[in-house]
Amino acid sequence: MTAQHTDLQRIMTALRQSGLTVEAVEDGALVQRGETRVALFTEADLQGGVIVRLHLDLDLYVEEDSLPDILMGMNLMNQGLDYGALNLDPVEPENADDDTPLTFAVLGRSVLWLRDLNAAELERLSEHLARFEAEVTEAVERTLHGGGGMRA
To answer: For the whole model, what pTM was predicted?
Structure first.
């Protein structure tokens, strides 16, 4: 078992003990908070500690002709986020030809460095995870239901 896998297992165990639903996926974990599922990935930091990457799929998709407006809105939204950022990832269409417009998924992303995996650092991860999910979700919902910022 690699150190990265061991770190991930320890983090998953700690999150489960804090009351979250956690399931292993390929090279990471899915953490469920209510209706929201955050993907969590770990890697060892060469200088010590563990880097934890969080990905929140918002089920929002944007076509490339809307990018100028979307990027401006995302930039404004990102200025108000403390625990993460909104990013665009290209979606690979199954049956696309050269004329098919590109589509991008809107994702929330965050990175947290843990000095080690002691109880205090794992508690800090749990709090960061909760704040990241709440902050990104609230920002997107406020924008979508507030009549402005982000249009697809």
So the answer is: 0.85
